[in-house]
Amino acid sequence: MTLIIFRYLSRDLLLTCFAVSVVLLVIFLTQNFSRYLDDAAEGKLAVDVLFKVVAFRMPYLLELILPLGFYLAILLAYGRMYIESEMVVLSACGMSHWQLLRLTLVPAALVAAVVAVFSFWLSPAGAQMTEQTLAEQRNRSEFESLQEGRFQAIGQGKVMTYVENVSDDNQRLDQVFVAQRDSDTASSVVVAKTGEQAYISDYGQRYLVLHQGYRYEGRPGTREFKVTQFDEWGRYLPPTTSVAEFERESDAKTTAQLLGASDADSQATLQWRISMPLMVFIATLLAVPLSKTNPRQGRYLKMLPAILIYVFYLAFLINARGAIAEGDLSPGLGLWVVHLPFAVIALFMLNWQALMQLRSMPAKVAHG
């Protein structure tokens, strides 16, 4: 009988966890995609690496999503069972809330193991590949960031460009327009038939070389303009402005590197990785009593306070991690100062009914 109940509960929890996690993953991926899409639209990030960067971020997102997904799965699955009186039937068969907790901790251990794989191995590997890809994008020349058919600011916004056509290998430009403000009163405009990138190995610098065009120099609103026709004209190409970086450098370190590091940031990151699978168990201890619902109240009555508890839990962990990294909190105390109070709260809620019975016993004795 216990095995049948265990299989029923585990299947319901894991399927609900999977469904909730997929929904949350889509939401978070959409937010990250829009973030990098802005960089791509500004020419800071090549379009062909956009999906690659988002894919590298998935382990980091799943590391955060799975504990929340399992927490919500307990609230939804067990809340439904309370509403439909399935929990009443289980209780009548001798299933106590402690037995229910023990059965719930088994799929929780499975989810925690998956989270540990993401936290200790896959997430750092994804961070390393993300940083490598973004570093390559930061080292691109502005020539390689030009997009055809649109006005685009380069040179930290000081130069406006327009290119009608860009070759497939990004080596040739057709019908080029370059406008630059040289000072507060003077500006220049260059139009050319073609353009290409030239690399001067002696200086290690790249130049945009334009062919067959005109250069207009002067003060806007006046007739003081100088027109120069050229067969070849060059402009220095500095590296592109930085695109968004990964939150912390220590996120890209392997767990073995963190174990051997003594700096505060590495210690904070190591404790964070340990905290993610641990958070699954503490969230389970919180969710089981919070999922208990009166059929007359509705299954979603306790969802809001339960979600707020989890949000506070995660927010305190994030703040504590930042405090450790900045040296405001001792690594010896670390994130355990957050886990311990929430574990105590969870145990208090699990024993709430027993505590109420103990509280009422003196009154009954006195009345007797």
Task: Give me some keywords for this one.
368 residues, alpha+beta, 17% strand
Structure, explained:
By secondary structure, the protein is of the alpha+beta class. 58% of the residues lie in helices and 17% in strands. It has ten helices and six strands; from the N terminus they run αααααββββββααααα. Helix 2 packs antiparallel against helix 4 (97-138), helix 2 (50-83) packs across helix 8 (303-325) and helix 7 (264-290) packs parallel to helix 9 (336-350). The two termini are 41 Å apart.
Outline of this structure?
This protein is of the alpha+beta class and 368 residues long. The chain has helices spanning 2-41, 50-83, 86-92, 97-138, 142-145, 255-259, 264-290, 303-325, 336-350, 352-367, and strands at 151-154, 159-166, 172-181, 187-200, 205-218, 225-237. The radius of gyration is 30 Å and the shape is elongated.
Write the layout of secondary structure elements.
Elements: H1 2-41, H2 50-83, H3 86-92, H4 97-138, H5 142-145, E1 151-154, E2 159-166, E3 172-181, E4 187-200, E5 205-218, E6 225-237, H6 255-259, H7 264-290, H8 303-325, H9 336-350, H10 352-367
Antiparallel strand pairs: 1-2, 2-3, 3-4, 4-5, 5-6
Helix pairs in contact: 1-2, 1-4, 2-4, 2-7, 2-8, 4-7, 7-8, 7-9, 8-9
